[in-house]
Design goal:
Length: about 550
């Protein structure tokens, strides 16, 4: 692979030399990001002593384009990784490099790439630095528009695992057809897109006690029917038996189904979604756990809250071994000048979501089959995992002031969602008020108040924020999160943090200092734990 990569770079360079007379220009762009934190031990909040005192993450992307060629590399350095980032990232290197040729119809990539089939329930590779997540594939990928309305792609390679590659070889293919584009004589209302994909992994069986399948395949089919005001998307996936550490080496087959219907009309919007997941943990190493070497991605059917108390204390994490979930979201914009809408109008959003276990009927399990249960497709279990009922009302109060208020009612099973034991469940109510005041053309003040009320777990919280922005260049904020309802008096702590930042053209510099409480960061149902810390953090991002 490395030799072939070098050959393609030389070929691209030769094309650059040859093509100068044709008017092509070489373009180079990229971005860098540097995050560092100075840590202080704080026994009161559980912040540990960090021997190195200062930890840092640094990433730099460099991409060159010339004619039909694009080539790039990414350098990463974790010395050592920030607290909360998997310590196996420690080190430096070039884990991502690629060359791509594309002529509009045909695209060929060698090296690293990210890919997705459908909504991702059999394959999605992507990077999320907030999660410390990167499961890119190192190999070869081909994409081609066969005829108008028909696109195919295929790939083979190994997934990234920190600064190494997965033990399993990943292979996949996908075809997508836009039915309306196949022939002008096809008369279908709206636009209909259908697709089918397949992914397989090969990992040698080296287990002395079990006979493990070395080839494990997954297939999916999907459709997306789009109208001016209506959109219907559905997908079903099936995975062959895939015994692994995460499912206790059971030989059950896996399946997942996802359906969402969205309707919008003038000031009204409605979205209804449902999802079933059964034994769909799919990895490029049967012994991997956590967020490492996930081949697929299961979309979350819960609202992704951005406010601190709503989004980081009790966020939902996908349960790939089994869940039945549903979500309804309603939006309505009250017209300007109406009795309820006021002078500037009012926006209302209502979101309801819930997750239960799947119904499982136990089977006689023995050392031969190791199949512990069967589950009817529409069988919803009785155990509640999660509930989130919330409403948000946003309104402009004057030319200079706009405000929003949010209320949430949550039910959260700590043991299931966080993989713990004997922690029980939490019922919580959260209220949020957010007010932005445009003092003048360049000066903006924002005030935020939140409260989380519960008698379980760590008890109730309150939070206040004041943020000042000067134009688009400078901002400063002070935040206080207060765990006043903790049943342990010594743990009724204020977590006070100061933030300030500056934007200089394409460079952003941010600094924060103070206490950070332990919590969970989730993006789309994929989560990581963030330990408590006390210290100073700086982040620099720049693009060119």
């Amino acid at each position: 692979m490395r030799y072939l990569f070098s050959i393609l770079l030389l070929f691209a360079a030769s094309q650059f030399t040859f093509g100068q007379s044709e008017g092509n220009t070489l373009q180079i762009h990229g971005d860098i990001q540097f995050d560092a934190q100075y840590y202080r031990a704080d026994s009161l909040i559980g912040a540990p002593e960090v021997p190195e005192k200062i930890l840092s993450n640094a990433v730099g992307n460099f991409i060159a384009t010339y004619g039909n060629f694009t080539a790039g590399v990414r350098y990463e350095s974790y010395l050592g990784p920030l607290q909360g980032i998997d310590p196996r990232y420690r080190g430096s290197g070039f884990p991502y490099r690629f060359v791509t040729y594309s002529d509009g119809r045909f695209t060929f990539t060698i090296g690293n790439f990210y890919e997705q089939i459908g909504s991702g329930i059999i394959l999605r590779t992507y990077e999320d630095r907030n999660l410390g997540f990167d499961n890119s594939i190192d190999g070869v990928r081909l994409k081609m528009n066969v005829i108008k309305g028909v696109a195919v792609k295929g790939f083979v390679g190994r997934q990234r695992t920190f600064f190494d590659l997965s033990p399993a070889l990943i292979r996949g293919a996908d075809v997508e057809v836009t039915v309306n584009d196949l022939d002008s004589g096809i008369n279908i209302p709206g636009q209909l897109i259908i697709g089918a994909g397949a992914v397989s992994k090969f990992q040698r069986d080296e287990d002395p006690s079990l006979i493990l399948p070395e080839n494990v395949g997954a297939v999916s089919g999907r459709f997306n029917w789009v109208f001016p005001s209506l959109n219907i998307y559905g997908e079903y996936a099936y995975k062959a038996n895939d015994p692994s550490l995460t499912n206790n080496f059971r030989y059950n087959r896996g399946e997942s189904a996802f359906l969402t219907i969205s309707y919008t009309k003038k000031r009204f919007g409605l979205s209804v979604s449902g999802k079933r997941v059964d034994n769909m943990d799919f990895r490029a190493d049967r012994n991997a756990v956590g967020n490492n070497l996930n081949i697929n991605y299961l979309p979350a059917l819960t609202k992704q809250h951005t406010y601190a108390l709503a989004g980081t204390i009790y966020p939902y994490a996908i349960q790939p071994l089994g869940e039945m979930s549903g979500q309804i979201e309603l939006t309505y914009n009250l017209p300007k000048g109406s009795a309820l809408g006021g002078k500037y109008g009012t926006s209302i959003l209502v979101n309801l979501s819930g997750v239960n276990n799947i119904q499982r009927n136990s089977l006689n399990d023995d050392s031969t089959t190791r199949i512990g249960y069967e589950s009817p497709f529409f069988g919803i279990g009785k155990q509640k995992y999660f509930r989130d009922y919330n409403i948000e009302i946003s309104r402009k109060l004057s030319d200079k002031v706009k405000a929003s208020v949010t209320y949430l009612h949550l039910f959260y099973d700590i043991d299931v969602i966080r993989g713990l034991s004997s922690q029980g469940t939490v019922t919580a109510d959260i209220a949020i008020a957010d007010v932005t005041w445009k003092v003048s053309k360049k000066h903006i003040l924002r005030f935020e108040g939140q409260t989380l009320q519960t008698k379980q777990d760590l008890g109730s919280w309150a939070m206040g924020l004041i943020e000042y922005s000067f134009g688009s260049k400078f901002y400063a904020a002070i935040i206080d999160q207060y765990n006043y309802g903790n049943s342990v008096a010594d743990q009724q702590i204020h977590y006070i943090t100061g933030n300030f930042g500056v934007n200089l053209n394409t460079t952003n510099i941010r600094c924060s200092f103070g206490r950070q409480r332990a919590g969970i960061v989730c993006v789309g149902g994929v989560c990581r734990n963030v330990p408590a810390s006390n210290g100073v953090q700086i982040s620099i991002t720049s693009s060119f």
